[in-house]
Amino acid sequence: MSQIADAARSTQVRRAAIASTIGTAIEWYDFFLYGTVAALAFPYLFFPKSDVYVGTLQSFTTYALGFAARPIGAAIFGHYGDRLGRKATLIITLGLMGVSSAIIGILPTYTSIGLWAPILLTVLRMLQGIGVGGEWGGSVLLSMEWGNQRRRGLMASWPQMGVPLGLVLSSGTVALFIAISGPGFLTWGWRIPFLLSLVLVAIGLFIRLRVMETPYFQKVVEERKVIAVPVVEVIRRHPKEIVLSALIRMAEQAPFYIFISFVLSYGKTTLGFGEGFLTLATTTAGILSLFTIPFFGHLSDVVGRKNMYMAGAVLVLLYAFPYFGLLDTRIPALVFLAIIVSMIPHDALYGPQAAFIAEHFPTNLRYSGASIGYQLASVVAGGPAPLIATWLLHTYGTGYSISVYIVVNAVITIIATAMMRERAKVEIDKELPV
């Protein structure tokens, strides 16, 4: 390859990493924004006829529906991502997510339109889920397939950083408008962060339009290996890999939405802390993840994907009881510490996760296979987690019941990880059948 070609490739690698990270951050800003406001405001705005417990359950139910829609998005956009390319699909998912979020920002509440308010909120939440369901696979592949194949763990971890970036943006924006609007947060302050989505989407689209299609997908097109119905084909050829991809996420996803979303409700209603303190803690946790996610992604390139992932699952298991022990002290410094430290065991899983999953599928089925496997966990782990945690707390009256739930998820992940193959050093376009 010539020096000019090398320079051009280096530019595309940087653009792909940046476009994947920024675009994913915007998608997750919208997704986490909903979760934050669902914990702090939606029970009062869209379910006011219910008591606090029922209203919180109803609010988290609409939250969970967004997760249920994610495998649908994975199937839809996985199909087009493996047929038309990663870049075009990612532009569509970003637009869908941004528009859905902006409409939430102007949605009338229950007092204005009655039952239509929670119905429309649910529909918009499901559109968000479809958008983010198609986003993850494309953003990971855009970065991983352009990057150095000996550093796939690190390259695939860049779009994973979109999660803490989105968390920092959403939590920080909510905290800012809580401070600015004060008592007016429940009337108008909560709307502004949703409306800001349109500005962020415009920035994301500008960045993504400057990235070329990945060389791996271009090779599939040139060799005429594009599959007519990739979703059906990947389910037929790789059912084990899809199921295991979902199960290895149990220790990562279910605890994450307890650590980041449920803790806002728990901290406010059970522990008595203010919204500002709690959102500051989750924002700080997100900032820490900006460093720990790429670190663990890089470490997986050194020690192997399975070793790193197994260690992360064990860390989640070990932290389950100390986490609620620290929270239940009600000492602000220890509560703050519990929330921040929770990201370390999570990120030990999340850093290597994208490469670990994507490496198990051939290039012409990778968008569909990785996306479906990844997003199936949303139905059984991420979406139900705040609901299950709320029910466990209400039923048993102690956060330690939720610790048991976290341990169960960690054990499932440990077993599933043991059944996965180590592919960190294998060429992703040669070993698997295409």
From TrEMBL:
PANTHER family: SHIKIMATE TRANSPORTER. Residues 16-425 form the Major facilitator superfamily (MFS) profile domain. PROSITE patterns: MFS, SUGAR_TRANSPORT_2. This is MFS transporter. The lineage of its organism: Bacteria, Bacillati, Bacillota, Bacilli, Bacillales. It comes from Kyrpidia spormannii. InterPro entries: MFS (IPR011701), MFS_dom (IPR020846), MFS_sugar_transport-like (IPR005828), MFS_trans_sf (IPR036259), Sugar_transporter_CS (IPR005829). GO terms for cellular component: plasma membrane. Pfam families: MFS_1, Sugar_tr.
